[in-house]
């Protein structure tokens, strides 16, 4: 029995044992002189025996949750043994969940890492609405795609999302936020892998070695985790051979029956010019950016991505074979979006701010095109650093 759990149950018992022998019956002189008389001792012994059995069962169930490989073995013992099978009250089940969650919060609690999966889509939707500014298309597509994918009990294929847009529009921010709501440990989870093209695969002459390593890492992660997440930043800079290594893990006909739930995110600046042109055309026509629909934008975005180009991503089978489930456009950010990012930066650091301070931060950013000065050239990138110039 675990000492902490046993102690808690024992203290609970002792706290309630004050009423033993006080049922209203007239106690004899010997019992008055001896508050721990034989009758109370026998009652306490009986209660301790019951609590011992219950706490042992609690510990077995907790161990089963934490070390899942022992569940079947213990279950067999219960069936074959003479001891009665305990059915825990509802409050006991609640405490068991709390204890197992507490243990998992600081330790690996199962071989597959499954206990670290939280899939908090409601929380993700709330945070995207509150913190992702100016991206109604991205927000809607991501939530719809994830909810449908996670609600499927056994999806046959991986979910593949490709984020497109200028730097600083929120692609990396959303990827981090998504990981944080899918896994308790976010990007630190053993089931989430991040690959940055020029950092992890810097030398083209070693592409064969990179390819073997990438295949091994993806394969090991999918075997370890029932749900895995792979993020490829600067996807347009991935060598064609590396994209070819990823293909078997996302291709419809190549996926093995034993593979588990996987999510692939590709982050790229490709298509940013087309997305910006559409947003600018809407502004010039006096239409709100929220009127931009995916039906209107997707065809133009896909045409740009399929144009002949030197980068491997545009020529990869991911696009040519329609292996990407959703193209996710990130629109360019305007002046008031930059102010909202500045506000978030102040709040994240627990600093007070004024509207004047937010305007000062936004005015330090570069806006394009040259005539309209409508969109932030860097999006919200570097906003958190720029507020340092306005602190007292």
TrEMBL record:
Keywords: Signal. Residues 1-19 form the signal peptide. SUPFAM superfamilies: P-loop containing nucleoside triphosphate hydrolases. Residues 333-390 form the Torsin-1A C-terminal domain. One of its GO terms (cellular component) is endoplasmic reticulum lumen. It holds the Pfam family TOR1A_C. GO terms for molecular function: ATP binding; ATP hydrolysis activity. Belongs to the ClpA/ClpB family. Torsin subfamily. This is TOR3A protein. The gene is Tor3a.
């Amino acid at each position: 029995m675990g000492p902490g759990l046993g102690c808690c149950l024992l203290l609970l018992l002792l706290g309630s044992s004050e009423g033993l022998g006080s049922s209203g019956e007239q106690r004899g002189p010997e019992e008055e002189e001896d508050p721990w008389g034989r009758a109370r001792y026998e009652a306490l012994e009986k209660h301790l025996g019951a609590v011992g059995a219950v706490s042992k069962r609690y510990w077995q169930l907790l161990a089963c949750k934490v070390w899942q490989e022992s569940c079947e073995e213990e279950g067999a013992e219960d069936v074959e043994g003479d001891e009665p099978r305990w059915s825990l009250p509802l409050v006991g089940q609640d405490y068991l969940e709390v204890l197992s969650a507490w243990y998992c919060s600081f330790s690996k609690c199962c071989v597959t890492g499954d206990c670290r999966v939280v899939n908090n889509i409601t929380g993700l939707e709330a945070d995207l609405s509150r913190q992702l500014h100016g991206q109604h298309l991205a927000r809607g597509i991501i939530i719809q795609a994830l909810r449908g994918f996670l609600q499927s009990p056994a999806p046959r294929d991986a979910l593949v999302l490709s984020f497109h847009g200028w730097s600083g529009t929120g692609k990396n921010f959303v990827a981090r936020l998504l990981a944080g709501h899918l896994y308790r440990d976010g990007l630190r989870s053993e089931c989430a892998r991040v690959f940055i093209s020029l950092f992890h695969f810097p030398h083209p002459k070693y592409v064969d070695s990179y390819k073997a390593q990438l295949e091994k890492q993806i394969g090991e992660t999918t075997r370890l985790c029932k749900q895995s997440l792979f993020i490829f930043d600067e996807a347009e800079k991935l060598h064609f051979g590396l994209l070819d290594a990823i293909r078997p893990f996302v291709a419809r006909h190549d996926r093995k029956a034993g593979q588990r739930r996987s999510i692939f995110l590709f982050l790229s600046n490709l298509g940013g010019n087309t997305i910006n042109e559409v947003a600018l055309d809407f502004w010039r026509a006096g239409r709100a950016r929220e009127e931009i629909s995916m039906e209107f934008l997707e065809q133009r975005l896909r045409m740009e991505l399929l144009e002949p180009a030197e980068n491997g991503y545009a020529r990869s089978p991911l696009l040519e074979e329609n292996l990407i489930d959703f193209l996710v456009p990130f629109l360019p950010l305007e002046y008031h979006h930059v102010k909202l990012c500045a506000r978030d930066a102040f709040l994240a650091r627990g600093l007070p701010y004024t509207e004047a301070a937010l305007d000062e931060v936004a005015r330090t950013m570069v806006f394009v095109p040259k005539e309209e000065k409508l969109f932030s050239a860097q999006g919200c990138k570097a906003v958190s650093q720029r507020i340092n110039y306005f602190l007292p």
